[in-house]
Design brief:
The protein is mostly beta strands. It contains six helices and 52 strands. Among the domains are: about 150 residues, no CATH class; about 90 residues; about 230 residues, no CATH class. The two termini are about 55 Å apart.
């Protein structure tokens, strides 16, 4: 809208009068013909860039009187213009007319219209529409300068005063579309509008809603200030009006402002205002949102949300939530008061900023009951999950020889059922890369000797085990466990008998502690007590291990004319041996009664953070067999010459071990056989995983394993003690299956699932966001008579089955099916459901219904959890645009939490 037609008009004036000879319309009788050469020169002097052929009359130069007007024009750039029908010059009227698809280009200005008329006597230019063969107006003016575009019915500009009048102008400013009956341009940066409407609708001429005002001051790309403004919906004025209004403009709006709260009510907390606050646009790199809730019974909540980013450096966000919950009223029997909180922090560092170091954070900690008791959270996946976890890590790589790495990590794991917290602050790890002391100058590592290598690993931990009530209190730090473990493995690998791969290793381990325990019987308390002994102490262990394995290939051919041409079976058997001697020297005895006759052995390191030294030696053989089955089948595509490969079973594993020190009484030689595997079916859309445990020994009447094989006890070769199977199947109508689901990032951060089998999270702070996949709007030309075939949908199934038979109970301990489906019922209606059924408990599992209506510029949604402890519903209708996100109405079910 920053019209700059002054230079355009001067240029046209220059092209028509400043570089050619002008003649009056009173032409005398021709006496001498003008040569072809002079005709060509005359034509070029009128317009060197004109694309159309303009007829030039043949006139005699010596009989025509020259115009007395003389102009001096200085241009800043090259100008081009063209028109389909004609470019007419009228010297008497002082007009230049471009007709039908007229175009004019100068610097960053583009003017396109049906007709463009320039009056160089009045210093004005006019651009407007023209009529087509049916009498309808077409070729509306389009004026573009830089990023601003105006599409009016007509425009009139005075290049002396640089003022303009624009009729029915249309322009886009950020998310807003503006249409005004009359626009007056004062200068390049200030406009005054009369009879204007503002909307975020795509169709500014027929919007589903708009804001109507008569007096407007408009600064393109910055702001709009209006007088009395009235909201109009479906061309019906509403009683919603403001005496004045301010609309921020621009593609990237970053201004501070008030966030209007929403009204709600609760059976136990009274009326409330929720999610009201203030947004602080602190800088281009970070912001801050402060939100709060208040209930009339005294309950309140505060939330601080901040996002930050620096290009090519890092990005992240921080959410801190605190709630003071009061149930009922003081004096009533159900009155209670508690404080809950939740802290979330996510940070990632751009690897390009520093290739040798990294820093990342994923924190989710707080009160164990936060997601179950929060008055302003509808995160079902987090509510059903029993674990909160966090990790903050920093690592640094040192380019030394050999290369070494240092990492510092803080971890946190919280069981929301028991309120137990396991935390490591910090966990320091340092490692040095493998060193090959016997490799020659050629660097070849081949054979037993040259493959000998050693490493160094250090693991230092400061660990805490506490509860919610003691978190970050002095007692938590008093009960800390501190330890450092040094590990030096020496290993090698080599080929044996050409087809076997062998490896062997010796591992040395040393553990340091700053406090140990001393067990003794306390006669005053009549029990055994642990006395803490402060001071440096250490123990040292070593172990030996070796393995031998090979790979066997087998192919079963069925014939080239068969649909299944062949099946390939790959087996990878391996045998391993491990030996760890006894370190009984680190064990002492203590009395278990007052007489001192009954004693037990213990090690002073058993309360440490690392595994204590073993009192008995370990001497065992391990057996493992890995299998894969692959088939070659005829490809359905007849143009393909090569058969298609299909994975039948991926990683069918069998493993067991034999204890060489087993005595058959206190310990049995053979361990149960573990069988596990997985495959993918239906073009890799279904994932199948299964596993079972097979015990070769029988059990007695009490359920204890005995040294008798099950087959010798009248049973089968193996006794199945447990089995499990899971199926996951996802299908979609979309071609790009990778985009069929939007990752549930917030749900994962809160401890929930990434899919929507447990429902989708409801962002109460911004219900204007769709819970479904955002797809491009379907235009009318895309909706055919059989439009249902074009509507997207997706479904996810998850089935889980667990069988238990440890004590011959032989029963299904878990059997459940979960289903999630999302579909477009029509081009504007979306629906989804997440539900399931527990066949053991004979009941429906968590169920959520989702409905959404696309109202073009508006969105309406309804989410309903019909039953269970998390039963709730919420309804929302509001404008999609983030600029007008406060224009909404939402209602939620009463919460008794």
């Amino acid at each position: 809208m920053n019209t700059n037609l002054f230079n355009i008009v001067l240029l046209s004036f220059f092209l028509t009068m400043g570089t050619c000879k002008l003649y009056s319309q009173d032409i005398t009788k021709k006496t001498t013909a003008i040569s072809a050469k002079k005709q060509k020169e005359t034509k070029n002097s009128i317009d060197k860039t004109h694309n159309d052929s303009i007829p030039i009359a043949k006139k005699e130069t010596d009989t025509i009187k020259k115009d007395s007007v003389k102009l001096k024009v200085f241009l800043d750039g090259k100008v081009k213009y063209k028109a389909v029908d004609y470019a007419k010059i009228e010297q008497k009227k002082k007009l230049i007319t471009l007709y039908n698809k007229a175009e004019l280009y100068y610097q960053d200005i583009e003017l396109k219209s049906g007709i463009i008329v320039m009056d160089y006597e009045k210093n004005e230019v006019y651009a407007g529409r023209i009529k087509d063969s049916t009498g309808a107006y077409t070729q509306y003016p389009n004026f573009k300068q830089g990023a601003n575009v105006v599409e009016p019915d007509s425009i009139r500009f005075n290049f002396k005063t640089k003022k303009a009048l624009i009729w029915n102008s249309r322009s886009d400013q950020g998310e807003f579309k503006i249409k005004a009956a009359i626009t007056k341009k004062e200068n390049d940066s200030v406009y005054f509008l009369k009879g204007a409407r503002f909307t975020t609708s795509k169709d500014v001429d027929n919007p589903e809603y708009y804001f109507q005002t008569n007096k407007v001051k408009f600064i393109p790309g910055k702001k709009v200030v209006t007088g009395l403004t009235n909201m109009v919906i479906a061309n019906v004025p509403t009683p919603l009006a403001l005496p004045f209004a301010f609309f921020p403009m621009g593609k990237e709006i970053s201004i501070s402002g008030v966030i209007l709260p929403s009204y709600n009510d609760s059976n136990t907390r009274g009326f409330s205002l929720q999610n009201g606050g203030y947004y602080f646009a602190l800088s281009d790199n970070y912001d801050l949102t402060v939100l709060g809730d208040y209930y009339t019974n005294g309950s309140y909540a505060m939330r601080f949300e901040s996002s930050y980013a620096k290009r090519y450096k890092y990005r992240g966000n921080v959410n801190i939530r605190f709630e003071n919950l009061i149930n009922s009223e003081r004096g009533y029997p159900d009155y209670s008061k508690q404080n809950i909180y939740n802290i979330q922090w996510s940070h990632s560092k751009d690897t390009k900023s520093s290739p040798n170091s990294s820093f990342s954070a994923s924190v989710n900690l707080g009160s164990s009951k936060y997601f179950k008791q929060s008055i302003n959270q509808a995160n079902i996946g987090s509510n059903l999950n029993n674990t909160l976890s966090s990790s903050v890590s920093y690592s640094q790589t040192f380019n030394s020889i050999p290369q070494s790495r240092l990492s510092l990590t803080a971890t946190h794991s919280q069981n929301t059922q028991t309120s137990q917290i396991n935390m490591t602050l910090p966990n320091m790890q340092f490692s040095v890369d493998r060193v090959y002391p016997f490799v020659g100058k050629d660097g070849v590592k081949k054979g037993f000797l040259k493959n000998i290598n050693l490493q160094y690993n250090l693991d230092g931990r400061n660990s805490f085990v506490t509860t919610d009530s003691l978190f970050f209190k002095p007692q938590m730090f008093e009960d800390a466990k501190v330890g450092v473990q040094h590990n030096i493995p020496l290993s090698t690998n080599f080929k044996l008998f050409k087809y076997f791969s062998a490896s062997t290793s010796v591992n040395y381990q040393e553990v340091w502690y700053i406090k140990t325990i001393n067990k003794s019987y306390d006669a005053n308390q009549s029990k055994v007590v642990d006395n803490i002994v402060k001071g440096f102490d250490a123990f040292r262990t070593y172990s030996f291990s070796s393995s031998l394995g090979t790979t066997i290939y087998g192919t079963f051919n069925f014939g080239e004319d068969k649909k299944i041409k062949s099946i390939r079976h790959v087996m990878r058997p391996s045998v391993s041996y491990g030996y760890t001697p006894s370190f009984e020297k680190y064990y002492d005895t203590y009395a278990t009664d007052g007489s001192g006759t009954m004693t037990k052995q213990y090690t002073r390191f058993e309360a440490g953070i690392f595994a204590p030294p073993s009192k008995t030696n370990s001497n065992s053989l391990g057996f493992n067999l890995s299998n894969t089955f692959e088939a070659k089948v005829t490809d359905k595509d007849s143009t393909k010459t090569e058969p298609k490969k299909i994975m039948l079973i991926n990683n069918l594993n069998l493993s067991t071990s034999y204890d060489l020190n087993a005595d058959g009484v206190t310990s049995l030689a053979w361990s149960p056989v573990r069988v596990s595997g997985g495959t993918q079916l239906f073009n890799n859309k279904m994932n199948v995983n299964f596993g079972t445990t097979l015990d070769p020994y029988a059990i007695d009447n009490s359920g204890k394993r005995i040294n008798v094989f099950n087959i010798n006890n009248g049973g089968s070769l193996f006794r199945m003690t447990s089995a499990n199977m899971t199926l996951n199947y996802s299908i979609t109508s979309k071609k790009d299956e990778a985009s069929k689901k939007d990752k549930n990032n917030q749900g994962q951060r809160n401890g929930g699932r990434s899919d929507d089998l447990f429902g989708k999270n409801t962002d109460i702070n911004d219900l204007s966001k769709s819970q479904f996949d955002e797809t491009d709007d379907q235009g009318e030309d895309q909706i055919s008579e059989f439009f249902r075939s074009k509507l997207p949908w997706d479904m996810t199934f998850a089935y889980s089955l667990t069988y238990g038979n440890n004590n011959r109970e032989s029963k299904i301990t878990s059997n459940s099916l979960m289903v999630s489906a999302n579909a477009d019922l029509s081009p504007k209606w979306k629906a989804g459901i997440s539900t399931g059924y527990d066949f053991v408990q004979n009941g429906v599992t968590f169920t959520q219904l989702r409905f959404e209506r696309d109202l073009l510029s508006w969105r309406m949604s309804f989410n309903w959890t019909p039953f269970g402890t998390n039963a709730n519903w919420n309804f929302f209708i509001g404008i999609k645009s983030g600029v007008l996100s406060d224009i909404k109405w939402d209602k939620r079910s009463n919460s008794n939490r």
